[in-house]
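User: Let's play a game. I give you a shape written as tokens, and you guess the letters that built it. Ready? Here's round one.
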């Protein structure tokens, strides 16, 4: 006597639950990685500038952060100009060749707006009239790009620029190097 057992039926379809779950999990992983990368490269934990009123409504060199770039001048020109500006009280951030590789005929200043007081103060240090470019930067630093036709700085640049009374000016955050405590490795 043989028992009649129902025979299992062959599976006639593909099981989709596992591949769909894997695709959803992969999409979550890729989305999380993309969000993390964007957050890493675009976030800034520090303030780039601080809104404040200026004493006597005057912007002075110690309130301005300058990047000095060589845009076609002789080698070492940016360094020499930066040294003079530093002696006049400006905060020098970078000294380098022009980051985009642009060549400038004479001299250019770039900053938040075309008529920003920090650009006027830097322009007042120059013997030549600079090409002024407002690029909408939020940190209110100034790029001074010197070209092949750049002559020199004025012997005595303007000491300050007047701003409107009771106006708020966004001043860059100046990072001063901290001394390394004795016996500690700076790296």
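Assistant: Ready! My guess for every position:
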């Amino acid at each position: 006597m043989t028992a009649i057992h129902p025979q299992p039926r062959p599976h006639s379809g593909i099981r989709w639950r596992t591949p769909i779950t894997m695709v959803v999990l992969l999409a979550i992983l890729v989305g999380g990685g993309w969000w993390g990368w964007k957050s890493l490269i675009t976030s800034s934990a520090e303030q780039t500038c601080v809104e404040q009123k200026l004493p006597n409504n005057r912007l002075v060199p110690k309130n301005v952060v300058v990047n000095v770039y060589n845009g076609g001048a002789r080698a070492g020109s940016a360094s020499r100009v930066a040294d003079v500006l530093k002696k006049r009280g400006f905060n020098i951030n970078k000294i380098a060749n022009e980051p985009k590789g642009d060549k400038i005929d004479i001299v250019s200043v770039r900053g938040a707006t075309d008529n920003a007081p920090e650009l006027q103060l830097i322009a007042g240090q120059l013997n030549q009239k600079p090409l002024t470019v407002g690029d909408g930067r939020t940190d209110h630093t100034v790029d001074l790009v010197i070209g092949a036709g750049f002559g020199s700085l004025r012997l005595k640049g303007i000491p300050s620029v007047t701003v409107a009374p009771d106006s708020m000016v966004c001043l860059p955050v100046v990072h001063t190097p901290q001394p390394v405590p004795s016996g500690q490795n700076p790296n």
